[in-house]
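the two lines:
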Amino acid sequence: MELNEVFEKVKGLFVEDLGIDESKVTMEAKLEEDLEIDSLGIVEVVMAFEDEFEIEIDDDELADVSTVGQAVNLLHSKI
Amino acid sequence: MKTVLVTGGSRGIGKSISTTLAKSHHVVVGYVNSQDKAEEVVNEIAESGGSANSVEINISSKESVDRAFATIEGEYGSVDILINNAGITKDNILPRMKEEEWLDVIQTNLTGSFYTSQRAIKQMMKNKWGRIIFISSVVGISGNQGQSNYAASKAGLIGLAKSISKELGSRNITSNVIAPGYIETDMTSFLDDENKENIIEQLSIKRIGKPEDISNVVAFLCNDESEYITGQVIPVDGGLTT
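prediction for all of em together
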């Protein structure tokens, strides 16, 4: 899957599952500061990713993820 | 209509919870060995105009829990209300207690409720609504001779329930504990009349409890009216622990 396709899917999950304004979801956006996702929200997103892409994400892989772009890159490497 | 899963829902307190909640919800009666009894409860609910079905769920096995939830989710979408009621006893005084007696009771009563709760909250978080109720025991608060394993497992449920309430309160998921005292069920059928009189002497309300005394409180905690109550332990024991 192309990086751009992963980004579009990720954006869809943010908008649909978490009710985040579509225009805010950019590759540079910070999850906690810009999108106001709390730590439980990040867990929800991860669980949604795991279901959507049929992958498993370890907790230590998540430690370095703080922006949408980092999340997209992590997912892109796993699909 | 919301879907409720009652583990151990075919007998004793669990049966009363199943029939009471079926007045306003779809009830899934969880059973392990007592499929016949579960079917009886389902039929009883259907005859009084409610909606119910039964599912095999051995909470001590993660695989069995996953299978049961997959079945329920396939048919009804999600478990909106989880009643962690199933439990076992293997009584022995501590000097004589075998490791197996300890581990079996902890595995079923405590770890089993971890399996069901962890599985249930996946959908509850998506729905942004959920109710989890743990049927503990006054023994988990006060301890009891010959029940160190059971008391530890029931006290453990209190820590689990309170932690869930803090982790998931922001998603409209509440988690509470009911601590029944002496209730007339199979589990207390070993008590003879003299035992019962001795127990009643310690109570403020001068009778042994009925399963309905518990299920009425469960029903209240499942309603939207109780949404501001979470992380609490509610003894329903005729005044035993005051």
